[in-house]
From TrEMBL:
InterPro entries named among the record's database cross-references: FN3_dom (IPR003961), FN3_sf (IPR036116), Ig-like_fold (IPR013783)
SUPFAM superfamilies per UniProt: Fibronectin type III (SSF49265)
Organism: Setophaga kirtlandii (Kirtland's warbler)
Domain of life: Eukaryota
Matches recorded under SMART domains: FN3 (SM00060)
The name this protein goes by in its record: FNDC7 protein
Length: 708
């Protein structure tokens, strides 16, 4: 084994180790160092001197020995040395309570009599600050804010021996930021807060608070955006700088007044036609308000006010879009509810009413803005007539005649309802149709028509219409007379009423027939002595005729469909009154009188021929009236002969009549007013010749011959 080493010195520089120095031992390859504290010890092997034993307890007295080692074994321990480890370093707790101070504290160190703490800027600038104390804490003040400092501390024992060092780097907390500015974006409801950078600040926090509401924004730059701000709030904005040492004092609060919120409880009223009242609730932080009203035709108006209502002019039939904004110095409130208000549609204009019949009026008007439906109401009489349609026309039917109606046309919209207080239009219906009560004959060609008057201030017109033409009469009362109606005509009589409002429908027609016309011409022709032919022109409207010849001696009458009649039993030489009744198909009769008629004188009787000398013939008869003159005619193949006697005589002579011929003899009365009669009996006589003179006269009546 090698020799025992000799310790030159042993000392402790660290609280957990002791360093030993010795003389080298020849042949030794290693050395074993032993530190013994009572029953415990710590060993360590080293190659050569010096050697250090670690893992020791601070401020503890150890017995230190050294043994040399080689392949042969270990030497005996060297004489021991007593060495005490130095004090442990104080464990510092460092903080920066303010931007210009650092507070250092530690726990008590075993066997320590005092402590030494020094501080200097880590960048080497400035001076070293050192303090000795027997306390376990101290504060360095007047430091630079936000600056990194290096702090070294150690404890010493009663002999003044320093212990281990404890080194700690600590930065002072940053200074309060300055020049804080707030830029508000009203559209996005956010604010950008900026400030001057602070020395030593690693991060910044911006606090935006309003009452219990707090918003934070953290950043490492010199500005920060704070979103989601609320309208109508007033915020206090402060900025705090931070680093690993702590936080600065917050800046003095900067007031941030937000834009006002959009007004709510907006109401729109049309307090009277043409005037809109817009009102809303007051808004916090709202200094004044602007109301925008835009009509659906693009026109926009606005109103500025510090109150909570505005008045606007409005037009009928428009839709208005209304928005209300509140303003303050921060700007305009967000867009709130956009309300729309549709005014009642306009009252229809260009009103026209035209009667298409007596009880129906067609009402038209110009279309109006905003109207979806129109209602036409006619009020008057005993009720109202209503019509609804989307068209700008309406026919009101079943109106009462002779009635004044108030016609009102209202327009409707789905949004607002009906137009209000549209002016009525007054329309009067045509008069009621009169009712003909009676038609009577007042005189020749005069007909009186009576009706029931059922209108006020109406003119009545009565019309008789027929093939013969039109006849009229008018009256404002209840009757009028149709004059000069032609006879033998059929008419349809109706009446209408006229007024400024129009003309009524015609009344029901009443048939009217005038008495047939008397024939203009009546001719009496005596056919025989007892038979007279009466003929006449056609009387318009007559179907049958009754002709009468009447005298004191008797009456002759006939009833016929023809326009002639043969009347028998006529007494010759008698004056007759002539009358004719024209009778219509319905039995109407016209009594017609004509000039009297005198029948011809009676034919003579007992006509005979007597032979005279000198080839003469005497015609003899018996006269019915001595005052009547007669004329005798003899007609034969050898000539015609006549003679007229002097007044009062009943015979006349014809001389130089040829014999040997057959003669027809006719003796008739002679009058100045009528042609020669031909109906008196004719007699045929044969005049024979006897030598050169008239011979025998023979009467030939029918089939027999008479010798005279």
């Amino acid at each position: 084994a090698p020799d025992i080493p000799v310790i030159d010195q042993a000392y402790s520089k660290l609280s957990n180790s002791i360093t030993v120095e010795w003389r080298a031992v020849p042949g030794a390859t290693n050395y074993m160092l032993t530190a013994q504290d009572g029953d415990s010890f710590v060993e360590t092997t080293v190659k050569n001197s010096p050697g250090t034993v670690t893992g020791l307890k601070p401020a503890t007295l150890y017995r230190i020995t050294v043994r040399s080692i080689n392949s042969g074994g270990k030497s005996q321990p060297s004489p021991f040395r007593k060495v005490k480890t130095v004090l442990a370093a104080p464990i510092l707790s460092v903080r920066s309570p303010s931007c210009d101070s650092i507070a250092v504290s530690w726990r008590a160190v075993h066997m320590a009599a005092g402590f030494s703490v020094s501080l200097m800027r880590s960048d080497g600038l400035g001076k070293v600050l050192k303090q000795n104390t027997t306390n376990t804490s101290l504060i360095f003040t007047n430091l630079d804010p936000g600056t990194l400092y290096t702090i070294k501390a150690y404890a010493w024992n009663a002999n003044g021996m320093p212990g281990d060092d404890f080194i700690h780097n600590q930065r002072t907390s940053p200074n309060t930021p300055v020049d804080v500015k707030v830029a508000f974006n009203s559209g996005a409801l956010r604010a950008v807060v900026s400030w001057m950078p602070t020395e030593g600040a690693l991060t910044y926090s911006v606090t935006v608070s309003s009452g219990l509401l707090k918003l934070r924004c953290n950043t490492s730059s010199a500005s920060c955006m704070v979103p989601s701000l609320q309208c109508s709030c007033e915020y206090d904005v402060s900025v705090t700088a931070h680093n690993d040492a702590g936080s600065s004092e917050p800046t003095d609060a900067v007031s941030l007044k937000m834009i006002p919120c959009a007004p709510v409880n907006i109401s729109i009223e049309e307090d009277e036609p043409g005037h809109l009242l817009v009102s809303w609730s007051s808004v916090s932080l709202g200094h004044y308000y602007v109301v925008f009203v835009k009509s659906d035709d693009g026109l926009e108006v606005h109103c500025n006010t510090s109150h909570t209502q505005c008045h606007f002019q409005s037009d009928c039939g428009f839709t208005y879009f209304i928005s209300v904004f509140a303003y303050n110095k921060a700007g305009q409130s967000p867009l709130g509810d956009v309300l729309n208000y549709t005014t009642a549609p306009c009252c229809p204009s260009d009103f026209r009413a035209v009667f298409v019949s007596s009880d129906t009026v067609r009402v038209t008007w110009a279309p109006v803005r905003g109207a979806d439906l129109y209602e036409t109401r006619a009020a008057g009489g005993s009720g109202a007539v209503l019509c609804r349609d989307t068209a700008t026309a309406c026919s009101l039917s079943a109106l009462q005649c002779s009635t004044r109606y108030n016609i009102t046309v209202l327009s409707f919209s789905e949004a607002r309802g009906s137009s209000a207080s549209c002016a009525p239009h007054y329309v009067a219906t045509a008069p009621c149709s009169p009712e003909i009560k009676n038609i009577s004959k007042e005189g020749v060609s005069v007909i009186s028509v009576q009706w029931q008057p059922n209108n006020e201030e109406a003119m009545y017109v009565v019309t008789a219409r027929g093939e013969a033409g039109l006849w009229h009469c008018t009256s404002t009362r209840n009757s009028c007379s149709l004059m000069d109606l032609p006879c033998g005509s059929a008419f349809s009589v109706s009446a209408i009423a006229r007024s400024p409002a129009g003309q009524s429908l015609p009344s029901y027609s009443i048939p009217l027939e005038t008495a047939p016309c008397c024939p203009n011409d009546l001719v009496l022709t005596q056919v025989t002595q007892s038979v007279t032919n009466v003929s006449w022109s056609v009387g318009r409207g007559a179907q049958t005729y009754v002709t009468t010849l009447e005298s004191p001696k008797g009456q002759a009458k006939c009833h016929t469909l023809q326009n002639y009649c043969l009347l028998g039993c006529i007494t010759c030489g008698t004056n007759y009154t002539v009358s004719l009744r024209a009778i219509s198909e319905t039995g109407l009769t016209s009594s017609c009188t004509y000039q009297g008629y005198s029948s011809s004188a009676c034919c003579p009787s007992g006509v005979k021929l007597y032979r005279l000398s000198n080839n003469g013939i005497r015609v003899f008869w018996r006269a019915s009236d001595e005052t009547i003159n007669y004329n005798a005619d003899l007609r034969g193949s050898k000539g015609n002969f006549s003679c007229t006697p002097s007044s009062g005589l009943s015979h006349c002579d014809i001389t130089k009549i040829p014999c040997g011929d057959v003669y027809t003899v006719l003796v008739v009365p002679v009058t100045n007013k009528r042609p020669k009669l031909t109906f008196c009996p004719k007699k045929i006589y044969s005049v024979t010749c006897s030598g050169s003179s008239v011979g025998m006269v023979i009467y030939r009546g029918k089939s027999n011959a008479k010798h005279i």
